[in-house]
C-alpha cells in the first residue's frame, strides 16, 4: 500500500481513535503522581472522539475537508494538557495532508513533523521525556525512512519500533518518571494511536465501541451555537461568516490582506484569518452579497452563514425585559467541582461556574461555551487546575469575548484570586492584583494514593492517605493526622490564617475536630473550615 486516499485517511484516524479508547484506562494508570487525577488517557480519548465526530460530519470525499475537520474537532474537544498538545499535532498534520489528494509515506512523514512543530509552539517550556519528545523523535525518524520505505505497512512497522524505543526511554529523560517506574502517559497515548492506524492498514480488527461507551458527550455543538454580538447599537445589520476553500491558482497571500481591507470598507468586526489552504471570514455588514462576491474572487465558499442582527436584537430586548437581566461588560468565571466550592465562588461574585477539575477536565469547547454564555466583552477565567490552564489558553482562539486567563492551579489560589477581583478595575490592575494574591497563598491537598510506588522518599501503597504540598510531604492512615503534618510544614511566623475545605468523603464533625486541634496548636492563627464537597480530595488546605 503506497498511496492513501481520503477514505483510507478517514479509516486511519478512526483506527487510532478506537485503539486509544480501548487502552485509555491503561494510559490513565501511567500517571506519574499517585493521586486520583490520572486522566491522560481519558483526556486524549475525548479529544480524538471529538475529532472523529467532526470528521464524520464531512460527507464529501475530499482530503482537505476531512483533515481540516479532524483537526478542528480535536481543538473543539481538547481536554487537559495532553489533549491540547494532541490537538496541535493533528492541526499540524492536517495542514500538510490537506494540500494533497493522495498521501504517500513522504507526505505522511512531513505531516508528522509539522505536527511536532505545532505542538512545540504551544508549550512555553517543553520538557524532554514527554509526548513532545515522542512526536519529535518519531517524526524525525519518519522523514529519514520515508525516502526508502514507500509501503505504508513497512513504514509503520519501523515507525512503531522507533516509537516503542522512544517511549521506553522517557524515564531516562524525565527523573520523575523513573522514580515512579512508568513511561510517559502522553507519549504512550500517541504511540497507541499510531498502533491503531497500523492495525487498520494490516486489517487487524478492533472493536468499535458505542458513543456512550467511548465517553462521547452530548450537548450543543460549539459551531452550531448562535453567534453572540453587542446588539444594542447596530450599524451593520447582517453578521456574515464563511470559509474560503480551494483557492484559485492566481490567489496570493496579498489578496487575503486586500480582502480584509475591502471588508473593512463595507462593515466592521472584520476577522480574516488563514492561509492559501483555508480562510475563515467574519464581518458585520449591510451588504453580505458584496462580502461573498469579494470572497468568490479568491476561491470557493464553504459553510456560509448570514444572520439578521436586527431581528436578534428584537429577540434579545424581549428576553431581557422578560428576565430583567443585563449583560455585564466584564465577567469572572470559574472551573471547579463540589457544591460547597461552587457556593464559595458564587458568594465571591463569580458570574458563571463550569463543572470540572481532577479526573473531569472540561474541553476547549466547554470553556468557550462557558465564556460566551456570559455575553460579556471581557471575561476573566480561573481554571483552578494545572491541567486545565492550557485548554483555557487555547479557548482564546475560539471565544467571542476577550478572554483573560488567570492561571490558578488549585482551588485555594482560585478563591484568593476571586477575592482580589475588581470588575471596575482595568485589565492590567486586575491581572497584577490577582497574580500577586496567588503568589501569597500556600496550597496543599490531602488525598489517597491510588497505586503502589516510591516517590519523594515515601514507600506508598494503594489506599495510603497522603499530603501534598508541592510534593508529597506526609503519609499515614489518619486523614486528620496527615493534614496536621502538612499544615506544620506550611505555617511560619509570617502566616496568619489557615483555611480547610473538606471534601465529599468527610463529615463536618471530622473537619471541625481538625479545626479545634489546629487552633490549639496555632493560637495566633485564624483557623477556618468550609464545606467544599469536592471529589477525591479529603482536604484542600490554604495558609496565608
UniProtKB/TrEMBL annotation:
One of its GO terms (molecular function) is glycerone kinase activity. GO terms for biological process: glycerol metabolic process. It comes from the Bacteria. Residues 7-199 form the DhaL domain. SMART domains: Dak1_2, Dak2. It comes from Candidatus Stercoripulliclostridium pullicola. InterPro entries: DegV_domain_contain, DhaL_dom, DhaL_dom_sf, FakA-like_C, FakA-like_M, YloV-like. This is DAK2 domain-containing protein. It holds the Pfam family Dak2. Coiled coil: none annotated.
